[in-house]
Structure formats: C-alpha cells, structure tokens
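Support request, please re-run this one:
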Amino acid sequence: MKSSPHIHLKLKLCVSGAAETGHCAPDMLDKTKELGKEIIAADGVLVTGATTGAPLWAAIGAKEANGFVIGFSPASSEVEHVKKYHLPLDYHDVVVYTGFGYSGRNLFLTRAADGVFITCGRIGTLNEFTVAFEDQKPIGVLVGTGGIADELENILEKAHRGASNVVFDRDPKTLVRKVVELVKKEKVTEVPINRQTADGK
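Re-run finished. Output below.
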C-alpha cells in the first residue's frame, strides 16, 4: 500500500453574488472579475450559479485567466435555463442542470464547493452564505462591494454564532489566499492506494 497526495485534484471555489447589481458598489463587478482571476491563479476551478451579474463577471475573469468554470443552474435543461430563467451559457465549460429551482440550486452549489466567496448580493446570496456557514465551509467575504457582503460581519455578531471559518477582506487576491489556507486545512493530504484495485487486478 502506497500513499498519494492526489495532486491532480483542484480546489472547487464558488463565487456567490447578485444577479442584478444596481445596488452594488461601482467597482464591484471589476473586483468580482479579479476574484475569478485569482481563483484560477490559486490553481482552483471556479464554481458559479450559472447566472448573470457578479457570478458571470467572476466567470469572465476566470476564463480570461484560462481557467475552468462549472455552473450550477436552477433549470432542468439547457432550454429551460435559457428560455425560462433567461440565464447565460457563456464563459462556462460545464453547466449542471439541477432542476431544483433557485433554493435547491443554492444547496447543490455551495455543497459542491470546497470554499465559498461572497460579494455584493441580496437574499439569494444570503441564502448561499447561510447554507455554506451551517455546512462549516470556508467562506471569504469581499467587503466594500455593497449589499449583503457589507452586512455579514454585523449579522454574525448579532447571531452570536462566531465566525471561525469566515474571513473578510477588500482585496480579491488577499481574500483568495485566506480562503485557500482554510480550505487546505480540511483537505486529505494522503490517500492509501491498493495497487491491485488501481491496476484492475
């Protein structure tokens, strides 16, 4: 029996944020695009809700950095994704059609990720944050982007729940570094390999 560091596995990092961004800080989309680029620079795969606004800009940043992007759609098919939900297909390599609407999609999205980033958002972003928080996922909040992202420190304080797995920063690069450090603490670094099984014998 030997051990493998499974170095082929990439971190799956989710960006959650507003699909409609009129209430967000003026530079929020640029910062979220930079967040997507930094996720790829950290050797991660970007995971999004396959929607418009902040998640799409994160995907644009990831693809400009030659990264891989996976989207989780609320729709049950590509036709429903485009015609019923009016969501984009651009800048994603794979779209998973959950068929569970927005609330079900949110659960699949955050559970599929190793870590979650929160930018400016509204109730859907808050839902993704609370699901990830309850699942004890590492979470990075890009403060200064507006919306729910700038309220979460206060919410956590009033909820008296602590924030050991939640980090805050205004700089996308620094925030990605902080979250990746948290994620790596949770990763299995060695996996026993049965050579007979691996060789198909």
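The chain has one domain: 2-198. The chain has a mean pLDDT of 91.
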